[in-house]
Write a structure and sequence with these properties.
Two copies of one chain form a homodimer. Chain A is an all-alpha fold. The first copy, chain A, folds into two domains: 45 residues, Orthogonal Bundle (Arc Repressor Mutant, subunit A); 126 residues, Tetracycline Repressor, domain 2, CATH 1.10.357.10. Helix content of chain A is 77%, strand content 0%. The first copy, chain A, has nine helices and no strands. The longest helix of chain A is centred in the N-terminal third of the chain and has 25 residues. Chains A and B meet through helix 5, helix 6, helix 7, helix 8 and helix 9 of A and helix 5, helix 6, helix 7, helix 8 and helix 9 of B. The structure holds a DNA duplex (30 and 30 nucleotides). Chains A, B: Keywords: DNA-binding, Transcription, Transcription regulation.
DNA sequence: GCGGTAACTTACCACCGGTAACCTGTAGGG
DNA sequence: CCCTACAGGTTACCGGTGGTAAGTTACCGC
């Protein structure tokens, strides 16, 4: 059997192993030796490829980041208008997380990963802000940024909710976000209060 | 000078020192010896009081959690109606973070603290869901939970935005959230699109 | 003052992230 | 077909840190 591989091959192997081990044992509780053992090599190999434990984690997150933008922007492309775009993008986000159960947000433990995750949020925030800007060209950029951040934060929490309570469907989560983001609670509160 | 203190006194001293050191150096980069030195004792003292490094962090977060509920619920009490309640509560949240610059969300590094922070979110989510339930008694509980989570996530992201860009005021952040949560984007997108 | 207990220190261990030095399989030229 | 150069890989080690067992000392009640 092969015992030596090219850089690219080993890097892919290590990345896969790292995602698996970090996911099942958590970042802090995972030793580099454990990852190395899973790959079938020794520790220094990991260091020649990724520099440090945080570097390895960073590579995992960076990979996930590209895949996320791919998934959401593709969904938004297929939409018929602003509301549909927000809805489809949101739904695609939840579906993305469904496809990679657990292995996505475990990363939030390390401080260097926190920064990388922040980059992912920035990526999604800019993307959403540009969608909103197209829907309402009169809004000033800062306000668009604010709205986009609200949506990103909302999605993150809804996703976490679904993780701990899988009975909440991706469609329901999307609907709850649309309730607030598009329609607003004002109308509902008014409904139950006084006639309109 | 006094060299020995009662349990309660030492615990308070250690908690203060831990908050300070964790805040300025980050959780992962802080050694227990560093905290102990700041207090003026040796490491095992910390362990007799808090059991482990994570236990110490947990105590810090638990303390902050109680203070947060105190601040937001007090603000909501003074409101005149549902919308004002949401607005005042949100504003109080941002002001709370202003008062403890940086020292609040640094905690999100450890996995055990992630759970504790999750408890804080649960606390605020339940609180907000109950407010929303009062505003719209016809909504079903799961939907209320969904809305509350949207708001909690939105606040968290807006707070983070303000931390990295202090020119965004607490009032602006609150306004952006109210734009979506209360009024909704539909009206605005419609404004720029066709007449209503 | 004088025990006795709670507070505290000393001295240590095991584990883990990281590295220097050495070894070996294998592609490619003669 | 062999042999050499180097990429790929291993062994053996270090320093720092979380955590602890055993011993020491200040303080309170009598």
């Amino acid at each position: 059997m092969r015992t030596r591989f090219t850089r690219a091959e080993r890097e892919a192997q290590i990345l896969d192993a790292a995602v698996a081990v970090f996911t099942e044992r958590g970042y802090a509780n995972t030793s580099m030796d454990a990852v190395a053992e899973r790959v079938g090599v020794t520790k220094p190999v990991l260091y020649t490829h990724f520099g440090s434990k945080e570097g390895l984690l960073l590579a995992c997150v960076t990979q996930a980041r590209a895949q996320l933008l791919e998934a959401t922007s593709q969904a938004a492309m297929e939409a018929s208008g602003p509301e549909d775009m927000l809805r489809r993008g949101t739904l695609a986000f939840f579906r993305f997380l469904d496809d990679r159960r657990g292995s996505a947000l475990v990363y939030a433990e390390s401080s260097v990963t926190a920064e990388a995750i922040e980059d992912i949020r920035a990526q999604q925030t800019d993307f959403i802000a540009s969608l909103l800007g197209a829907a309402d060209p009169t809004a000033d950029p800062q306000r668009l940024q604010g709205w986009a951040r609200v949506i990103v934060g909302a999605c993150e929490r809804l996703a976490h909710w679904r993780k701990q309570d899988p009975s909440v469907t991706a469609e329901q989560a999307t609907e709850y976000l649309m309730d607030l983001a598009w329609q607003g609670l004002g109308a509902r509160a008014g409904d139950s209060g006084r006639a309109r």
